[in-house]
Amino acid sequence: MARGNLRIFLGAAPGAGKTFALLEEGRRLAGEGFDVVVGAVAAKGRADNEEMLEGLELCPKPATEGLEGGLDVQAVKDRAPDIVLVDDYAAASGGVHRWEQVDALLDAGINVISTLDIRNLESLSDAVREVTGEQESLTVPDTVVRGAGQIELVDASPELLRQRLADGKIYGTREEADAALAGVFRIGTLAALRELALLWLAERVDADLSDYKELKRVRESWPAREKIAVGVGGKSRDQVLVRRAARMLAAATGGELHVIHVRTGTEGPGEAGKDLEMLRRLTAEFGGVFHAIGGRDVGQALVDFARSINATQIMVGAPSRRSAFRGRSGVAAGVLRDAGAMDVHLINHLPGPSGGQRRTPPRLGRRREIPAFALAVGLPPALQFILDLLPHNQLSTDMLVHLTGIVGVALLGGLWPAVAAAVLAGLIVNYFSVRPVGSLSVLDPENVLALLIFVLVAVAVSLVVDRSAKLSKEAHIAGAEAAVLGELSRRAVAEGNSIPAFLDQVREHFQVKGAGLWARRGTGRSAVWELQKFSGEPRPAEVSEADTVEQLDGDRMLTLTGRELSQDERRLLAAFGAHLLAMVQREELSASQRENLRLAEGNTMRTSILRAVSHDLRTPLAGIKLASSSLRDKSITFGPEEQEELLATIEYGADRLDRLVSNLLDMSRITADSVAPLIRPVYWVDVVGEALRGTDSERLRVLLPDNMPPVDADPGMLERVIANLVENALKYAPDSDVVIAGAVGGAGSARIGDVPASELTVVDHGSGIPADEVLAMFRPFQRADDTTPGTGIGLGLAVAKGFTEAMGGVLLAEPTPGGGLTMVVRLPLSTGAAPEPGIRGHHGNSPDC
User: Fold this and answer.
1) Contact 715, 690 (CB under 8 A)
2) How many CA atoms lie within 13 A of 564 on its CB side?
3) CA 257 to CA 249: how far, in whole Å?
4) Cα dist. 52→56, 390, 751 in Å?
5) Phi and psi torsions of 242, nearest 5°
6) Disulfide-capable partner of 560 in 26, 401, 512, 549 (CB 3.0 to 4.6 Å)?
7) Alpha carbon distance 76, 321 (integer Å)
8) In this predicted model, what pLDDT tens digit does every residue of 185-221 receive, in sequence order?
9) Contact, 540 vs 553, CB < 8 A?
């Protein structure tokens, strides 16, 4: 019996319509004459699903009308339909997984159509938990899902899903919908789940395409999407190729970057190691993949690998004129010859790592050259003396012994001492070993040739040994410098080192007693150098006391005390100085920006306060004045109700003045950075209860989960934040309910930096605000309608945002599906640490206008 075929509708997000698509396909197939039954379905009370279910046979038939039971495998086998519809492939009942039941039906030769949510894929469980903040308990192995004959994606945009949720097409009750808005149905969460589904399905399509090409033995690349294969030889200048390819892919949606290095086995043990690592990191920064493969023919190996990944373009460096002259242009020529339908890009003018200037190889140093010259003079006579003591009559023996001595001189002092030793050794061999002995004349022409070859071989060996020694020293110096500068950059980025800490690093690296940063004060002859920062002891009084001075710019210098640096160390010190200058300039720029921002906010605050006093403060004062003067007028007699109304006017005006003044003071403290919250673990439910005390509104509903963990916050400040948000929602959504909901996780963004967070949402279904006015809404003295009297001076949201940020949280505004505004308060989850002593920022709980 042939095995049945499995077809899966993969839902990109909850509510995308996979069950509707399943039933719709079942009805279509039944209309074409296929025997279709429904093995298991979860209509979930949705009218459209119930409508699509009508007319389809249920197997087994429910005992009561409309009952939705589980999957009965034996009943379906006995019925033996052509196709069975099985909803929710990841479900489980009684310890039996539904995908295992489906596998049994497939073995029985029955075709199955099922549904699966992207959240239930086993390989994506960790990613889904990061996105939604919830761990899925039921998952399906990817190998099982990939075995399906057909997988179709059921997708919908986040905006459409939220609109369907608001219209009641996903959840039956308003409470469920409002809770979902604070959780999985956040725009960011839905977008992240959608991306996971698309990426997973794209990987499967790629795998299917590769399998098909392998089965059909297709060698050419098919341009399904742009893939650029970049061939690199392991040099730092190849970074230009990677950057050029990344720019080309920037305009191609879904393009892939593959950087390929072909190892031929002819490289040295440490050749190009650092440059290759830099290329790996650069590739990762651009989101590409670095491949290191083996092969004898670089061009052929590059083309073969590009075909294996279905690349559409190949990029290699064009050979230089020098390489072409030497016959080394074979890689580019081979790629052009074998690329076939793939586009080939040859990139010219690749700059070298140092701007095209060749670095002079370092000398081995006088400490080695002077002893080497002494050895060059003394070693050949000493070796000849030893040879005279040993009985022998072979000229080759003398030459080999002296050649060994020349190699030793080259190892110690380099080329020129070895050349001197070679010339002297040649003369000594001629005098003592070549007939006639005791004379520099040579009678036998073969001996003349032997002496010339001896000197040439000695010089050649000296050249090789000298170059090897210099390259070894250069590599050691470059490696040390690169390690130091790399560590310097890593610390600067990861730790944000301060200038004193940086000076500590300078002092420790160069092993000096002190390192200081000096700045020029004044101009002309009156200019003096002042020590701004210093590390070590003793502290110098003047620049002249320093042993090494590195000028950073016209007004700053770096000094070291304790010893003078060598030329190589001075070059590294210049790099340290450039980094120090950048740190100084960055600190000055940051300080200037902070000061300018503070001045601008202060000016805006003062101007706004003056404007507010002219109207918003005058109105309640006028009401208080009118009511109090009327009560004091003896010529007018007021009844009890009239007196009560006048007293209520005075009380309302006084309360309004109190709130306005409190908000003005809070805003001034926030602007002056003088808010000092007292952070401790706080439960949302406790703070919400205090914040809503005295707020009597039938339109207010609280939907907080019972298991919400505590957050780190100042209770008093958090009460003010919640009270202001609720008051703002009740005021500007007069015909709507206001829902307070809570959630942990969501959108992969329920985090503050890398810290897990919890969220509280205040949802209304009023008129909302335009998207381009969301940022302006949090500025001081902003109101939804400045022409509406009696709505306050617009400080409520500004104070709420300032207090939230002072507690280390985030306050956001999002549109509510169907209209309205959702305010999101996000605070870090409590770590349980004891509160630090300090001054509590604010402990009032009165709502704000």
Assistant:
1) yes
2) 2
3) 8
4) 8, 110, 41
5) -65, -45
6) 512
7) 75
8) 777 788 888 888 877 877 766 666 655 556 555 555 5
9) no
